[in-house]
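User: Murein transglycosylase. Structure?
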Amino acid sequence: MRRWTGSGLLTVMVGTGAWAQSASTLEAVRLHRAEARTQASQELEACVARKCPEQGRLALLTGTLALAEGDVAEARTLLTGAEVPALLRPYLAYYQGQAHFYAGDAAAAAAAFARALEKAPPALAPEARARLGESLLAAGRAKEAAPMLEAAATQEPGAELLFQRAQARKALGNTAGEQADLRAVALRYPTHPYADEALGLLEALKPPLRLTLAEHLQRAQGLLDAGDARRALVELERAEAAKLVRARPDQARVALVRAQALFATGQKPKAEEALAVARRGPPSVAAEAAYVTARRAMKTDDNAAARKLMQALEKEFPTEAPADEAGFFVGWLDLQAGHFADAVKAFTDFDQRHARSRRRDEAMWYRALAHLRLGQYPQTRAVLDTLVSTFPQSSLVPQARYWAARGQALEGASADVIGPAYETVITSAPNSYYALLATERLRELGKQPPPPFPEAPRPPKGSEVPAELKLAVALTEAGLFRDAAEDVRARAARIRDPEQALAFAGALLRLGEYGNAHMVAARHLWGRAFGARMPEALAAFYPRAFENAVQSEASRYEVSPYLVWAIMRRESAFRPEVASAADARGLMQVIPPTARAIARKLAEPEPAPAELFSPSLSIRYGAWYLSQLMKRFAHPALAAAAYNAGPEAAVKWVKDKGVLPLDLFVEEIPFRETRGYVKQVLADLYLYQSFYGKDTSPQRLSLTVPVPHTEGVEF
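Assistant: Predicted structure:
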């Protein structure tokens, strides 16, 4: 069944007609609030009583809410006979099919899904086709179901479709196809409920089809990657019970996966015993086991031990894949420890031994940084020049150019020599953190930096809702937010040229669809925005999303609205519906524990996790939290670092390396993710200020790292 999830899409509407539901009901639906269905039902009753023309749309919404809560009988009653505008009829038929299917009437479901498929838009057609095939199969019409399921499973081969296609293939006598699908379900989707059922069906065959050791290991690794370490251990036990683990190489492979699962379940002594077994295996397995040991040392901050382990790994297994990573980390750990001469040597050796490594450009950068920290400025420039010429498409080119110029400055070169180098950084990478740094360095030299962008963002002109977005608007007016979101994404995927993308993004901006406008721009308008510097393209990259809420909350909590937008851009790319693997939610990616802590500070009721998808609540909590971080850390770079990695980590980094100038301090933040996060937030913050700030004097970036206050926000 489709799950009802608030999309946050099309939240700011322009004159598109009357609404069937009240704003409060639509908000309740979008936020999954418990009262949503009750509110919708009351509005439907009132509409029926006064014979209003919106009965069909209200019945559609109320029926889908009943369906989402498992009230199938009520959903069938509401959806049967409802009349809706032509644009919504495929969706009405689709949800009628859902209600019939879960009521056990497969034949009626098939008829409804067939009606939905007749005029289904691109976003709905794959689901309607898949559900039609499932319904036909359940109705005993396997021959009719087969082509539907073949097409659906080929287009989107998920566990459910593959399992259903296996059933259709069995009914048609396609035994080989059935077995292939069941095996695919068991191996590719080990955490799905159908995976165990597929295994049972394979084992029930005569003769039974049993998994090989490699397949058991594949399932165990999949379970481990999904965070289900206990089931991974059970899978390995099954392989051993089947007497598939005989030779020493096989024992080593099993032991390697077992060790990682045991570590994940807190069984350290047993895990280390398993690693010892893996280390006695073939070189490929032994090298992986050694790498697991070294990485665990890094995770516990025992960097000295980690370095020794990485160095030993590279020496013992020079031709195995982990040797590449190990060699890189030897140099990186030297750099983190302040052993800059050792880091230069380690990265030089790495470049010679791992000429095909994907990390070569990164290793060159860190070697240059080590030279810089030693005051070896000519060597710094030589390595960075090699990086730029060898890897001209590398994302590290802007920072290589900046630090080459910075090395010249530290060596004492004149402003006339350094200035053009900084200007090149700005003109070649205008939206980058390094353009911001180069701008500050030019101002230090008393030179006027070139503007990164001649004009501020300006949305494309237009007022009409384009034809390709009319369905999404109709779905939103009906309260079908999830369907509206899927329709927008499906139509955006069909864009093929920048002109079309520019018009589409402009329309999305006018509809308040900032996230989807940004997505379209990122796919199609990069060159228009950052090459041609088109203000119409820039508007989709740097919108003043949810402007009223951002300005209001920023003013209330005395924090820059531009910092709120910069964080929002990095966290969610302006998409209210986003949830991360760490359960961060909404525009500002607030996790439920942090939201509860903020609510306590604000002396208000703790929000339900689903409420964190609300743009207004997410912006309010994000603005409050940023204001507290700025009060404690007094610099946007540190506030961004704390927002990403936590205040405790930011305090530690300042304590360890706060004497460095800001540009070097950021480069030596030990977490890769946080380094990138801080750089992007700073770049976006100052671009937003330059684009939309009312102060005619340029905002300056302080290159001094302040000492954080001992008191302040700690969560």
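Residues 23-191 form a domain with the Serine Threonine Protein Phosphatase 5, Tetratricopeptide repeat fold (CATH 1.25.40.10). The first helix runs from residue 23 to 30.
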